[in-house]
Amino acid sequence: MAERRTDPSARPPASRTWLVVALALLALRLPGGSGPMSDPHVWRQLDTHHVALDFHRHGIDLFHPAVTWLGDHRTIILNFPITEALSALLYRAFGPDPWWDRMVSLAFFVVATLYLLGLARRLMPERAARLATLAWLAFPLGQYFSFVPHIEFTVIAGVNGFAYHGVRALTERSWRHAAGAALAGALAALVKGPYLAVALAPLALLLLRTWSWGNAARAALALAVPVAAFLWWRGHADAVNARVPDWTFLPDFYKEVNPLWRWMGTLAERQDPDNWFVIARRLWREVATPLGVAFAAAALLHPAPPGEGDAPGVRRAPLGARPFLAASGLALAFHVAFFFRLNLWHNYYQVPFLAPAALAVGLGADLAWRRLPRLGPLPLGAAAFALFLALAAWAPWRLGYRWVDWVRIEAAKRAAQIVPPGGLVVASDVTTLPPTDPRLLARMDRYGWPMRAHEITAERLARLRAYGARWVVVVRDDARPDVAPPAFLGPALAAHEPVLHAGRRIGELWVYDLDRGGWQGGGR
User: Which residues belong to any copy of the Glycosyltransferase RgtA/B/C/D-like domain (predicted)?
Assistant: First the structure.
């Protein structure tokens, strides 16, 4: 048999060069890792860090994690806290520090990266797979959320693992990989189950392409375990969350018991074109970046011939990259349309776009590498991809990531010196969003209830006193002078000070002790 010739333009970049670039892109995360927690979405990071801190102090109880914004009740389930438990183990060994939360996130990101590379190799030529992995490492949204205290890449590691093992289970008719898909899928289902849909749709298409009763049984195993895990955990979470006291007298209070209405949003939100523009703009700027979008569009023209340029020993899936990406795209469209409010409010709900976007960018960049002319020894496609990596690497700084809220940090530090440990606090700051805002309470390391300053009334405080509330903390940012404490709290004033950072005044702090001066709660 004649030896098959490989088109020289399909050869992948040298392994050593690729590895150096990949490690350099991974290292982009490290410079911002030693400072205080930052925005965007420091809110969720503070919750994640506090759950780990509570595990460190009181023992790891995966079934009853604690947050700061439910008074002394504390317990609520937002996700399966495996990420937080691993952080707590590191706290035990090295001391409690958000650095270890970041390292856990990074470890799951590395796992997700390895799974993505393995998946890409089974869908496209080796060079396209390597370029896809570099794109994944460079995307701005991935750079940020892979090195903050957050659960997103715990889920994505499970989703990518589910896709990788699922492809191999169906392509190679392997029960071992079916079991791997079941375990990886269970992790994703426990932490944030809906993200699995991104992998389910293309795997369903692959099952049709490779149909046999054996493959149907393998797919059933791979799916049944995650579904069972999801249903069991949601039942437990709803039962635990239903025990939160009835605090409907507090502004915007609700119980986190299967609140689909809150996650989905309203028809009016979907009918506002500006809301769709917000999400589309994030995909353009934070997920793929403009040049990445151009590469992804070029992927539609890639022939992706089976066998050409494949890694040795890798068996390409019969589905191909473009049908896989089309099915993933449909699943992502459903993800946005169904969980519209979450996608609108939180940019991290676009994290599931990263893997399909990386595969598309890698495929399109490989096509550019093949088809564009050379400039001397340099392929123009390689130069264009290098420009994409450089722009994506710089994008987090241009997008304003890692903004530090010094007003809340400095105010919380001072308030914690006044409010004793165990004191329950009604906390109000610049843009408090009740009932789940940890941004002041978590930084104080105190429990309590967040409330807007103008919604603090004597009646509400009197009712919270029955649950142990004693302290009221109000913070004003000098850039937002409209925030002020209610006048009726005057007799309970314990401290009124400027908030300082680096020797400069940036805000104002009021601390009230409701046991002080015979305060009886008169007024409004």
Answer: 81-233
